Amino acid sequence: MIRVGVLGARGRVGVEVCKAVEAADDLELVATVDTGDPIEALEGAEVVVDFTHPDVVMDNMRWCIEHGIHPVVGTTGFDADRLERVRGWLEANPGVNALIAPNFGIAAVLMMHFAQQAARYFDSVEIVELHHPNKADAPSGTARRTAELVAQARRKAGTAPMPDATSSELDGARGADVDGVHVHAVRLAGLIAHQEVLLGGDGEILTIRHDTMNRASFTPGVLLGVRRVREIPGLTVGLEHLLDL
Ligand SMILES: NC(=O)C1=CN([C@@H]2O[C@H](COP(=O)(O)OP(=O)(O)OC[C@H]3O[C@@H](n4cnc5c(N)ncnc54)[C@H](OP(=O)(O)O)[C@@H]3O)[C@@H](O)[C@H]2O)C=CC1
Ligand SMILES: O=C(O)C1=N[C@H](C(=O)O)C[C@H](O)C1
């Protein structure tokens, strides 16, 4: 049995993670922590799943790593600087590993993978992400990661810069520039989490779309991370590394 703790246990995703851990024969839910609960309740856990908030996730990760607990993190808001700090904590605590995945949905991971594969064949790539209006960060972690993967693929292939004649614009009209890829964020009541990667070439458009229909959809990926994190050394970013893609 793997002893699992959950941070953000009363949140939209945390609730689903707790249910999934409780239902798994090989996992034991030993602690659930949310705002106002003492983090020390996690001390008996081997693996802690974090679905909290970008403002608190770094403190949570540091606490887990310094207590010899492997974090499996879905909370977003990571940039290169944050990832470097996590690597530093892991180096100072050998034997502790961490998994951070901007999206634990298997279909979402495939969407990112397919976008990365397709990116070099098109003149233009832009990303539109659409989420519920309670989301703290924009653009989404998934969109940021997709843009980075697309940009990496295009750099590697030596693809020409994307055509764009815009010479005057209202602030934000062209979205955020993530590694040279434009990312547009919609916040709309009624949505959960959705993303389109638009790839355009001469006379052809390819659209790769992913829709999250409920938050239980994240849990198979989370449980995969929980089961594997103890054996993947150091910091792993992205669930694709566990999917043999
Ligand atoms: N990687 C992935 O696959 C996915 C990632 N996410 C990301 O996960 C994060 C959480 O999303 P979601 O579940 O929708 O958010 P919610 O706001 O529904 O849940 C977060 C929970 O964490 C609690 N919380 C806040 N601070 C702390 C803390 N210091 N310690 C313990 N608990 C705390 C919140 O309490 P309170 O409300 O009282 O502050 C809340 O109950 C976001 O960053 C989101 O983008 C979401 C879906 C999938
Ligand atoms: O906040 C959410 O809801 C989600 N957050 C993640 C992100 O920022 O990419 C994953 C998914 O999009 C849902």
Automatic annotation (TrEMBL):
The active site is at 131 (proton donor/acceptor), 135 (proton donor). SUPFAM superfamilies: Glyceraldehyde-3-phosphate dehydrogenase-like, C-terminal domain, NAD(P)-binding Rossmann-fold domains. (S)-2,3,4,5-tetrahydrodipicolinate binds at residues 132, 141-142. The keyword ATP-binding does not apply. GO terms for molecular function: 4-hydroxy-tetrahydrodipicolinate reductase. Residues 2-104 form the Dihydrodipicolinate reductase N-terminal domain. Gene3D superfamilies: Dihydrodipicolinate Reductase, domain 2, NAD(P)-binding Rossmann-like Domain. It catalyses: (S)-2,3,4,5-tetrahydrodipicolinate + NADP(+) + H2O = (2S,4S)-4-hydroxy-2,3,4,5-tetrahydrodipicolinate + NADPH + H(+); (S)-2,3,4,5-tetrahydrodipicolinate + NAD(+) + H2O = (2S,4S)-4-hydroxy-2,3,4,5-tetrahydrodipicolinate + NADH + H(+). InterPro entries: DapB_C (IPR022663), DapB_N (IPR000846), DapB_N_CS (IPR022664), DHDPR_bac (IPR023940), NAD(P)-bd_dom_sf (IPR036291). Keywords: Amino-acid biosynthesis, Cytoplasm, Diaminopimelate biosynthesis, Lysine biosynthesis, NAD, NADP, Oxidoreductase. Residues 108-243 form the Dihydrodipicolinate reductase C-terminal domain. Pathway: Amino-acid biosynthesis; L-lysine biosynthesis via DAP pathway; (S)-tetrahydrodipicolinate from L-aspartate: step 4/4. NAD(+) binds at residues 8-13, 34, 74-76, 101-104. Its EC number is 1.17.1.8. It comes from the Bacteria. Pfam families: DapB_C, DapB_N. It is found in: Cytoplasm. NCBIfam families: dapB (TIGR00036). Belongs to the DapB family. Homotetramer. Catalyzes the conversion of 4-hydroxy-tetrahydrodipicolinate (HTPA) to tetrahydrodipicolinate. This is 4-hydroxy-tetrahydrodipicolinate reductase. It comes from Planomonospora corallina.
